[in-house]
Amino acid sequence: MALLEFARGPGLYWSTIIFVVGIVWRVTGVILAKRGRDLSKPRQSGVFPGIRTVFSRAIPNQELHRKAWLSILNSYVMHVGLLVVIVLFVPHILFFKSIIGVGWPGLASNVVMIFGAITLVSLFIAISHRMTNPVLSMISSFDDYFSWSVTTLAVVTGMMAFAHFMEPYTTILAVHILSVELLMIWFPFGKLMHAVLIIPSRIQLGSAMGRRGVKA
User: Fold this and answer.
1) According to DSSP H, which parts of 33-168 are helical?
2) Domain coordinates of the chain in residue numbers?
């Protein structure tokens, strides 16, 4: 079996199963996690405090912004860049359409590649900051570095595939697909899972704080 056939066949099949089952398992675990019963009288109830927190936490605290503006800005650039590359690149859209039956307009390939290059620079700024900042380097774990590695590998190989960097082209395409499948397999078990959990966790935090009369 050729490498590309494996990547598009068994590799894609099993990585998708692990990706979906892993996410369902993590989300189910969060939903079913035991929580102590709060017997205090709620200062505020309903979902509004939780919804408000989703948006309020997206805006950096002014004091934090002054001290870590570069890191915060870089984080926004990286996440926006990844979003554009993943969901607005026409070949990716066609791939999603082949699975879910729904497509949407994309951007010109050269525009997406510009976003890809910016994202790549942003990823290296992030890892450089993590490795040189005394506090960040102390609290960083294997998860942080491996999550960065699989994300960067997927972006790099994707840009190489677009540029037909390697001959035959099917080889670099297969390497890119396999790198994405590695990311999918790791996704539910590492910190990349924050992409799924960030909104429900903020809603939970905001609701809990709102019950105590605290604005989160």
Assistant:
1) 48-56, 62-67, 69-87, 90-100, 109-132, 134-139, 142-162
2) 48-54+68-211
